[in-house]
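Form 7-S
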Amino acid sequence: MKETPVNKPPYLMTARGIVKSYGPTSVLKGFDLSVAAGEVHAFLGGNGAGKSTLIKIISGQIDRDSGSLEFAPNGASSNAGDSSDENTIAVVNQELALLPHLTVAENIALPRSRRGFGLFNGGEARRIAVDALSLIDPAFAQASVDRLVGDLSLHERQLVEIARALDSGASLLLLDEPTANLTAGETERLFTVLRRLTVDKGLAVLFVSHRMREIRQIADVCTIIRNGQTAIDRVALTSITDAEIVEQMGQAALGAVQESPRAQRRARTQSNGNEAWKPNALRIQTEGIDLDIPAGTILGLAGPPAGPETLMNALTGVSSAGWSIARNGVVVNYRRPATAARDGVGFVSGDRANKGILANLPIVDNLAASARIVGRKRTVRSDEVTDGRDLLDALSIRAGSLWDLPASLSGGTQQKLLIARWLKLKPTVLVLEEPTRGVDIRTKQEIYTLIREMAAQGSTIVWWSTEYVELVELCDTVLAFDPDGRPTSVLNHAQINEAELAHATGMAA
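Output:
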């Protein structure tokens, strides 16, 4: 690889020799990073490499152990944390930081209120919120401004968090997986805004993503972190290939010895033949759709959240509105998620913080959560400890102890914990809501392998993803929805490609 460093001093933000440890675990080991005004800087690395930790240090959410961190918003250097820097940085964390009991308008406008005893102007707050949200989704801006954030979906909360950051007037914008829950159209509108702000306002953007296509679309340069250290420092994206990026992240050999998911899907279909399919596990019906789904099928859901969420809610006992669900020929109407779970329906969410990880309970409790619901158990049993250790080994999860809190694990590893809950239960139906949100390439492949194995053992998988490439590679059948949440078509096998998905959903690939 020919490294072409991009030198564009003076830098807006410079981090040198940043060190951070949590007890015996060393996360950052002398990391360096420089970000210039007017650029989108891709910050890349595998799960657990230290990206989110560095972002929290830069934004003042946590303290560094050692190293220097300086800002020069006006060309003059100042130490991080000075009161003069309060308007310098805005951040969108991987785990969103909104106030659920306040409205969308209040969440977006309140950071502008610097004084504790000033009167809050609700009308002005609504105007600010509508203007900020309209940069990305004008229709959502008008419809949601007075709603409570706690009533929003993860997708909608992501839009609010990004809008608040864009409205902040900051000179440095830290975006940690900002597009993980956005549709392709929303992502492109966000990128349009970022491009304009970097050119017209000199905004600096530090952009974290595992989606290589997006990185190529928006970023100028990249820095790669590996095991807490700088592997690549400010290299122009025009001078480094995707393969070289993956190699520098320490994930070069990924998938080299295994057949692609798409080839495995094709081979499975050809070897089984229609007559070899197992009995129907699932039948879903709504206006215009009557779909039989055999056991072992991976059914993809394509489109923005409105449509897939209603179906997933019906399958998992949250709400049955609009759908008729039958299991093995018997119509079911689950009234609670626990009832669905005891009937063999598993659920894994990409919203780890709010619908997945039990943050205040140790890893062993997180692994055993689903089994306890199904078996109506509440206490830790010796077999749970044994099973927990087996699952950690099987999934290559590195944890200090089963009694550590999930916060000791990276976001991608936490996601594997959520899937691990269901492995020994062997659910008849497993519903996956953006399960690879915010995980790196290696972890994605590990999740893909787990899901394919569960399907091969007879579980019917229902997988919603806004990444078309996932649906193309993994799914036997895809049910597509339009932007208004209406199912539009069913795609099978050879029909499942990015062009067809874009046409069926009305969303760009």
